[in-house]
Amino acid sequence: MTSSFSASSFPASFPESTVLGYPRIGPDRELKRALEAYWEGRSDRAALERTARRLREDTWRRLAELGLGGLPSNTFSYYDHVLDTAVLLGAVPERYRNDDDLTAYFAMARGAEGLPPLRMTKWFDTNYHYIVPEIGPDTVFSLDAAKPLSEVREARALGLETRPVLVGPVTFLLLSQAAPGSPDGFAPLDRLDDVVEVYERLLGALAAEGVGWVQLDEPALVADRTPAELAAVEAAYGRLGGLAERPALLVATYFGSLGEALPVLARTPVEAVALDLVRGTAGDVGLLAGKTVVAGVVPGRDVWRTDRDRALATLHAVRERAGRVVAGTSCSLLHVPYDVERETGLDPALRDRLAFAEQKVAEVVALAALLAEGPGADAPRRPAPQAQPLASGARAAEGRAPYAVRAAAQAERLKLPLLPVTTIGSFPQTGELRRARAALAAGEIGEEAYESLVRAEIEHVIAVQERLGLDVLVHGEPERNDMVQYFAEHLDGFAVTRHGWVQSYGSRCTRPPILHGDVRRPEPITVRWARYAQSLTSRPVKGMLTGPVTIVAWSFVRDDLPLRDVVFQVADAVREEVRDLEEAGIGVVQVDEPALRELLPLRRDGQAAYLEWAVAAYRWATSGAADHTQIHTHLCYSDADQILAAIDALDADVTSVESARSRGRVLAEVGGFGRGLGPGVYDIHSPRVPGADEVERLLEEALRAVPADRLWVNPDCGLKTRSHEQVEAALANVTEAAARLRERLHRGEAGRRGETRPDS
Ligand SMILES: Nc1nc2c(c(=O)[nH]1)N[C@@H](CNc1ccc(C(=O)N[C@@H](CCC(=O)N[C@@H](CCC(=O)N[C@@H](CCC(=O)O)C(=O)O)C(=O)O)C(=O)O)cc1)CN2
Ligand SMILES: [Zn+2]
Q: Ligand 1 in contact with 510 (CB < 6 A)?
């Protein structure tokens, strides 16, 4: 049974071990299945709630069984914890309000009939996505504490005391966007006083419930913050700490060092601060003397077993300087899979080096026990036989010819019309394909049966694109389970898991591959599928590869080499694949880098150096291509503004970007690139089919920023999450819009900047 404490002994002492959060999708993605059944009308609210409750209970029981002291609660979510916080604060925009709270909740997350969802974006530098709350000057806040309170009660019914976890007020507002119609200069943080007032009432309600500790997550404090923002932190926690009736407060920071925010938190009356001692350092931790420090020494974002000696030494060092220390994870365990013991297919030598969420909990518990034994305790060393690193580092790409020269060679070879229409790569992943892949893995069907299904799908996708009149075709990626996992399965140096699901957004998950050794490409990966697709049509088929930064960003990566060297190893493999596609007669190759922005360091001082090597790796991967081979790249989910110069420096012949939901800004920014550009005209995240008129208007708008001879027509992103029906209807409208506009351009009726053909 877990150690618990009584709220009446305030300030309660903190348990000796804890984790900042836990996965919630379920060991077998039970929540995903329950959500999708509910959304599709195959089940009801009661069934969804039953699954959710069972997942929460299983988690608390398991954590208690493993001997964990401080159990978190309110880490469950039906979709996203930032959205949950907006609901808690009553910040539900008017247009989503509904008598049924769950209907309003999912409308914000996923949209509803005629109602687009709220924006979704990356949670710091992770592959988790949160829903961006909308806060305006007139947003009326009100407390809805039902969720954290009921989770506390549920755990109590099992005999377990928990610590509710909430996004803290400063991070919540910094992650929010100004509601439409807010006056210029308004920032959501302007509403801090009002939001803190709701948190005050929340803390009161939790205290009344007998809750001893509350965790407020403030990861925004590990990024560069202005003096005004730091002052806001001090004011907010000064107020919350000054309350007479409240639980003890743990402010959790993670994903980096606190830096100048540490002395600020130190001055506030909060009882405990959690520090990420994996990605960050302890800094001026001595300033926290008198508070409890939750020392995040067990990595929450990788899958490697913790080096016990090092972790214990860190715990001792922090204890010496700060006093009371608790063993913890560096961040929530949301970012790792549940249990490595289930991965019976992994090489045992590798598996022995791995720790997933359950194993990490056990590590935290063990470290807490060793810490309690005192400084002399003898800790077992972690067995960490690492592969010999390759002598590797940056390779300098001897660039391709200047764009004008390449563009002329490509125009000559590809003979594309004005406003060429293409897609981003994937076509709908049918249930039939997914089931066949599962059957293949289970040995129920053979390779040949599976591959003939893939070929049939390629035939279908090529036929659809020819019929609709697209100009640069794709094979549709039917052979890929995921754009990163698929490549990992075909490269040496990676392992993949069977059950290692990690939530990416809502019900969508990935199984991040484990990059544990030197990366090599034993043989061509995509060439035979590209060649097969090209054999079916006289139009150009675009080869489709995932870029080196994205492959690494969406994997769990060895930590014994600089990230940059690992990325360059992957870039070597991609470079070989580009060459082989070219040799197979493929004239257009797309190398996707949707995660380019994601790995950008949170603090400015590391950003320039990162962008320099990330761009260099991309150019190394693509610069082996001949001038007459057209290189495309694709980015999405990127707040492009911060990395525009880097995107330009990729030097791709054609760049497609997501823009359906933030159009004007993107266009103004990327219009000046001077090479091919495809601002998305079809928002593939919504089931909605855009009309031809609508697409035509979007293209007209694009023509104001991009000359006609450089404008491409394409969706925002891949089509894998849509249905064939939606995709065919949408693409028919897209090609029709492009044809109409092309006709008008030829008659000289549209486009103001279509005068500069590079080959004339
Ligand atoms: N790695 C990665 N990160 C990314 C993206 C991405 O595409 N890949 N896109 C952005 C958005 N994130 C996304 C993340 C996941 C998915 C997604 O669609 N995931 C699928 C799973 C994809 C997959 O691995 N599919 C496998 C396994 C499919 C499966 O569930 N199989 C069943 C059996 C078959 C069945 O009955 O349907 C099972 O295992 O139980 C396959 O196709 O082979 C899902 O959650 O549903 C989409 C976007 C950013 N980050
Ligand atoms: Zn994309």
A: yes
- Catalytic residue status for 685: yes
Q: Is the CB of 555 under 6 A from ligand 1?
A: no
How many domains would you assign to the chain? 2
Give the separation between CA 745 and CA 709, rounded to whole angstroms.
10
Q: What single-letter amino acid sits at 561?
A: L
ipTM: 0.99
Give φ, ψ of 319 to 5 degrees.
-65, -40
> What are the start-end ranges of the H helices in 644-691?
644-649, 663-670
Tokens at 532, concatenated: 């097969």
Structural domain span for residue 333: 14-23+68-373
Q: How far apart are CA 10 and CA 212, in angstroms?
A: 7
Going by C-alpha positions, the residue among 287, 24, 285, 289 that lies closest to residue 297 is: 285
C-alpha dihedral sign at 314, 316, 322, 326: positive
- Domain annotation covers residue 187: yes
User: Which residue blocks in 594-723 are alpha helix, DSSP H?
Assistant: 607-622, 644-649, 663-670, 692-703
| Residue 1, helix vs strand vs coil | coil
From CA 419, how far away is CA 99, in angstroms rounded? 46
pTM of the model: 0.95
Task: Pick the residue whose CA is nearest to atom 16 on ligand 1.
Answer: 508
Residue 27 CA, ligand 1 centroid: distance in Å: 15
Last residue of a domain, one of 373, 393, 419: 373
pLDDT tens track for 440-468: 999 999 999 999 999 999 999 999 999 99
